Task: structure prediction
Amino acid sequence: MAIPGNLLSSTTEAVDPNTSGWTAKLNCTLSLGSGGRNGDGCLTVRSVAAGEMQARTVSSYLVMPGTVYETFADASGTVAERIGIRWLTASGAEISVTWSLTTATASATWHRVSVAGAAPVGAARAQVLLSSTPAAGNVPHFWENVYLGLAWRTTGNLLTANAETSEVDTSAWAVETNATISRTVPAIMWAVDAYQVGGHMLTLTAVAGGTVSALGTERPVVTPGTEYAAYTYLSPPTSGITAWIELRFYDVGGTQLSATRGPLAAPGTGYYRQRVSAVAPAAAATCAIAVGMDSATAGQIMRVDNTVIGPAPIAHAGTILTYEATSFEQGVGGWSITSGAATVARSTPWGAYAVDGSYSLTVSSATATTSTLRSARFPLTPGAGVNWRTEWASQVTAGGWTATRGVRWYDAANNSISLDATTSATVPTSGWWALTTDVVAPANATQAAIEWTLTATSTSSVLRMDVASLWPVLPLAAVEAQANSGSVTLTLRELPVGYLLTVYRVGQDGARTLVRGTSGLLNKTTISSDLMVIEDYEAPLGVPVTYAVEIYTAAGVLSATRAAGPVTIDPGDPNEAWLKDPGQPQRNLKVLVERAPDWSRPIQQSAYQVKGRRNAVVLSGLRGGLEGDLSVWTRSDDERAALHWILDTGDVLLWQAAPGMGVADMYVNVGSVDEARVSGYAPELWRTWKLPLTQADMPTSTGVGGSAGRTWQDVLSSFATGTDVLAAYETGEDMLLDHRRG
Result:
């Protein structure tokens, strides 16, 4: 992998496929080795005799005087090493060499060595020098992954490169309490692409027992009200000592306004990235970083590297939770148990349980009881009427839990308005799970807090939670009643393509009915798009219904569920009823009812008069469904044509009347139709119709072949020219129904 910004060629950087980018400078021979990290090849530098040996790049590279450049490499050997930048004039004469400190110990494991420095006056070109000092001849030293270029720093860091890595010197830091400051180069194996770490490390040494601290001398400018985060690698002398990073804010005069500390829960004496975050106070003008350790003994040291300050990361765009309350890097972030026996704490040690950063929130319950977990309140921007989504990552590490996930809303006076929550469900086990809830902020809501009601299902239950977010978003599942078409529009977003989808309409009695899609009933139908708009023309009128959505993996395993509603279709004039074609909703229309049917239920029977018996023996089949004549009026030529159109196909229709009219929604077959004039007056537009109805089963294989809302814009958006339209449809009706040729 090429190192970004490297002035060296890829062959010189990775020593692949040969050593042509390198030459011996002092007391050594060069050869191609294997087992490298950046490609297989590595540079083998072998001593000719005892004493220092040096290799250098064959080429020299253009530099600008006064500009800070850095070189680093990964090394492996039986003796300590150093790396340097050799500054040259335009004619190739050496001006000076900026050497790194020698590695503290030798290591045969790949480890990072590096140094940075400003190009001196007169410098026009530079070379990389590799150096080690074996005590005998024929001693190999291995080099790989070499860089020369501008000093590395983390993108977005408010600090300079030297403050981040101390590769030049310690001038970006000052002793604050009981310490000396220096640089050391421990032999550490970093990731091959961890370009901002390694090499020189800021080293704090305790002068006496007690607190040790150092303060950054740089003061980056900040914006009041903005949340900032800082992090650094800390290497404590023991796992039991408290090492920390602190983010401080100052006013324009340099007076400290606040200090927020992130203590490290070290699992050992390695190198651990510790984070801290805080919102800049109202009068803040600048900030600074401090590091330290408590209760140190004289001579103990702590190393620091890769120090960064910048805007706090966000889990989701628009989330109103602070990073402190999202990732728990410095504590519980304002979360608390408002009722019940459970307790909350930051997980320990560093790196044991986390999705983001190095820690998570730990909820523990010694008893199998119910507790309420709630965040701090956060201002809504925007507020009422907006759909908000909350998301948590959770992991059960002991026992078991059920949870009711919700959001509690508050007004401007901090009074609780309501709690919108899901039904109770088991928290998934075995790994981290992202659990979401969509809720709409009520009127007068100006603040919100995430609230979970947690029930431990056994004693000594432990739940880890991380990456909490609350942000405005279009809902995953939304419903809207369409009174003009007697339908419900169900919109599903962020669907996993390739998974399977089942959608139910749920009535007031809890009965579930599959909803119709373009290919039939939506029962484990393959998801082809992350957005799906379903028009349900068979939803009942005037009564609330909800929708239950089930998402399955391609293998048929239930993956997620969603719910939407309730929603109610306005039935309108109770004297009108809908006639609907489930497969072709473009044909649907409302008719004015003259008289509802008088129902009969036919049955096939055979009567046999047995000799010597008073009563006949009657053999009966199963009694049929309802049959009767529905009388309706049409009031215009358009209504009359529309009624003919829906009856033309002979399909099973759905007849729906307003609640309270004495009839339930019914699928029917329509027999021979009579259309009559209501008077002898020829221009009269009204007609009376007798529609013989026979009750039918709901069609299950029929798909929705279009939309009642299809317009000319849909045609214009689908075809470039009129010729394309003529080629696609055989008739005008086919165009209206979007029934294309072939």
Q: What stands out?
A: The chain has seven helices and 52 strands. Helices lie at 10-14, 161-165, 323-327, 637-648, 712-718, 722-728, 732-737.
